[in-house]
């Protein structure tokens, strides 16, 4: 089994994606051998009212049973965002909450960011932080969002010690630095942008944070799934139990998902 923790549904305003709706994502998953995907709404990133994207996401994935694991997206600068989050958690049983401060115009360390992080912690859910959607070298000139940075991540982790973090599409992470910020046992990192063989980023993170900190992620449909499948294959030398943790068990446990 493979659970992909780094996937999205929806249109992206700056280029056409290979898969843009649930049906196309299912086709991509089936072709790639992905059993389940943790998905959030791209529309929630760019709509003025992010919650409309959450509603669309639930409508799209409903016919596909357990293939999709939905993640809420909230914008703490938008009116009544607390009610939106409550609906996502209590009505739709979403398993995590995405924040995109670089697109919604706030900081994780300002009053809006702190309010959102505190509310997510109250629900006992992980927060999903995607470092970036696209490589800035190929971005549209209207896409001016900055990448999330490690310094802000570690500061937020120290300020919110109850909160768990799903780190999606990150690179440049130091296991030692994350552990010093109290993130050992509190974070799950997908390997879509990390090296298994060349720079051995993933083996070093496993050494410092434990194998429980790593999960399969592809960043589909922005990126091809193949490179992440190769990374997973390169981890087959691990003990079988550890390989399964990275392929799917860590994701299921971190997000409290039945399998």
UniProtKB/TrEMBL annotation:
Pfam families: Amidohydro_2. InterPro entries: ACMSD, Amidohydro-rel, Metal_Hydrolase. Residues 11-256 form the Amidohydrolase-related domain. SUPFAM superfamilies: Metallo-dependent hydrolases. One of its GO terms (cellular component) is cytoplasm. GO terms for molecular function: carboxy-lyase activity; hydrolase activity. Gene3D superfamilies: Metal-dependent hydrolases. Keywords: Hydrolase, Lyase. GO terms for biological process: secondary metabolic process. PANTHER family: 2-AMINO-3-CARBOXYLMUCONATE-6-SEMIALDEHYDE DECARBOXYLASE, ISO-OROTATE DECARBOXYLASE (EUROFUNG). This is Putative metal-dependent hydrolase of the TIM-barrel fold protein. It comes from Fuerstiella marisgermanici.
């Amino acid at each position: 089994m493979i659970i992909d923790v780094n996937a999205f549904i929806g249109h992206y305003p700056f280029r056409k994606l290979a898969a843009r709706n649930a049906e196309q994502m299912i086709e991509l998953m089936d072709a790639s051998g992905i059993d389940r995907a943790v998905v959030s709404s791209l529309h929630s990133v760019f709509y003025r009212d992010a919650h409309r994207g959450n509603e669309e996401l639930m409508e799209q994935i409903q016919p596909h049973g357990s293939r999709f694991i939905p993640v809420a997206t909230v914008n703490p600068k938008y009116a009544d965002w607390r009610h939106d989050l409550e609906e996502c958690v209590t009505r739709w049983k979403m398993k995590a909450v995405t924040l995109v401060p670089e697109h919604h115009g706030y900081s994780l360390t300002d009053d809006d960011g702190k309010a959102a992080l505190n509310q997510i912690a109250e629900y006992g859910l992980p927060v999903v932080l995607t470092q970036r959607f696209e490589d800035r070298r190929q971005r549209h000139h209207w896409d001016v969002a900055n990448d999330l940075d490690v310094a802000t991540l570690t500061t937020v982790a120290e300020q919110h010690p109850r909160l768990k973090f799903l780190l999606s599409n990150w690179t440049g992470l130091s296991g030692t630095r994350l552990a010093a910020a109290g993130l050992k046992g509190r974070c799950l990192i997908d390997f879509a942008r990390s090296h298994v063989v060349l720079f051995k980023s993933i083996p070093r993170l496993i050494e410092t944070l434990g194998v429980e900190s790593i999960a399969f992620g592809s960043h589909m449909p922005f990126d091809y799934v193949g490179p992440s499948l190769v990374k997973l294959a390169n981890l087959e030398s691990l003990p079988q139990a550890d390989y399964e943790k990275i392929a799917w068990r860590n994701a299921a446990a971190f997000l409290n998902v039945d399998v």
